[in-house]
Amino acid sequence: METITYADGNTPVFLVAGVWLLVRCCVCKAILFITRINKADVFDKFYNGIAKANQALNRLLSVSQNGSLRWYIAGVLIGILFILALQLLLWMVNSEWWIVNGD
Fold it and tell me: What CA–CA distance (Å, rounded) separates 84 from 43?
């Protein structure tokens, strides 16, 4: 296919305008028509549900935020102590360390 060019190497303005008009009238309207038909897409509902669940979880968890680092550290330490105490208790129950004679 041969392209029309002027002597200075530029494409004629009427060809550029024609391509622009073709894209503007046919391609863009077709794409807009398809997107309007597919507005209530199943995938959009899925991702909107994920976003709403994240927002609800954010509202729920942000209640516990007070900005005090000491309370956060204290909560973490209490959790660590609870886990260590639970592990020690399970070790004592399973190992039978209190039996001295082997009875």
Answer: 45
Taking residue 33's Cβ as centre, other Cβ atoms within 10 Å add up to 10
Give the ranges where 38-103 is alpha helix by DSSP (H): 42-62, 69-95
Check: CB of residue 11 under 8 Å from CB of residue 4.
yes
Q: What is the pTM of this model?
A: 0.36
Give 40-70 pLDDT, tens digit per residue.
777 788 889 999 999 999 999 888 777 788 8
Q: Indicate whether 36 pLDDT > 90.
A: no
Q: Are residues 47 and 21 in the same domain?
A: yes
- Mapped onto helix, strand or coil, the DSSP state of residue 28 is helix
Residues 27, 77 share a domain: no
Structural domain of residue 88, as residue ranges? 72-103
Clarify whether residues 22 and 45 are in a common domain: yes
Report CA 51 to chain centroid distance, whole Å. Answer: 8
